[in-house]
Write a structure and sequence with these properties.
globular, alpha/beta, binds S-adenosyl-L-homocysteine, 9 strands, Rossmann fold
Length: about 220
């Protein structure tokens, strides 16, 4: 089984966990069928790579549940030409999904070790449209702003002007917003100077730790 490519596991994951629960954007479903999720999971977790839950990736952090990756990506409405900012590179899996769907992806991670591992995997998979930064993503990435889409993959206490100021007109920001342990997946659309907000369900992400996020806790 050394050459196992996990394709059947991915298709089963897409059918049972995504389609059946209402993920309908064909581009999202295709990207999640294509990207080798097992490559982003620590070797000792590989058997669980397609399970319906988040998995530990080290430093007290997690790769998100497949359904949550699909839901966030669908809410982001990526069509092709966009420049996307992701906060929380983690394993790099969500970044790979975005790189399949958008023109350029800028991803920020506060743990240098996680960023390095993600960069190694993503480079070996051949993505040429990903840009990495190690640092505090709550500041955004001002040198590369504005962005057409912003995706926050860690929980934040509130949506900040720092990030909204880096969002283009017509753009979307998707972020888990709430307490340290539970959040609402929050979608903000920028229409001129107006910001329209709705929520797309409850979720539980690790905290976004930084100047405009949470303070570092025991597990950070
Ligand atoms: N998108 C990731 C999920 C990562 S979990 C994936 O697909 O695997 C959230 C990540 O956010 C963690 O790796 C955590 O270290 C990172 N993080 C937390 N606070 C951050 C901050 N202020 N800036 C950048 N990354 C942050």
């Amino acid at each position: 089984m050394g050459r196992r490519d996990y394709r059947d596991d991915r298709h089963a994951m897409v059918r049972a966990q995504l389609e059946r629960r209402g993920i309908s954007d064909p581009r999202v479903l295709e990207a999640m069928s294509r990207v080798a999720r097992h490559r982003f999971v620590p070797v000792n977790q590989r058997a669980f790579a397609h399970d319906d839950r988040p998995l530990p990736i080290g430093e007290g952090q997690t790769i998100s549940q497949p359904y949550m990756v699909a839901l966030m990506t669908q809410c982001l409405k990526v069509r092709g030409p966009e420049r996307v900012l992701e906060l929380g590179t983690g394993s790099g899996y969500q970044a790979a999904i975005l790189a399949e769907l958008a023109a350029e992806v800028y991803t920020v991670e506060r743990h240098a070790g996680l960023s390095r591992e993600a960069q190694d995997v993503l480079r070996s998979l051949g993505y040429g449209n990903l840009h990495f930064r190690v640092g505090d993503g709550t500041l955004g990435w001002p040198e590369e702003a504005p962005f057409d889409r912003i995706l926050v993959t860690a929980g934040m206490p509130r949506v900040t002007d720092v990030l909204l100021d880096q969002l283009n007109d017509g753009g979307y920001l998707v972020a888990p917003v709430g307490s340290r342990s539970f959040q609402d997946l929050t979608v903000v659309e920028r229409v001129g100077s107006e910001f329209r907000e709705h929520t797309a369900g409850g979720c539980a992400f690790v905290p976004l730790v930084g100047e405009y996020g949470w303070e570092a806790g025991n597990s950070e």
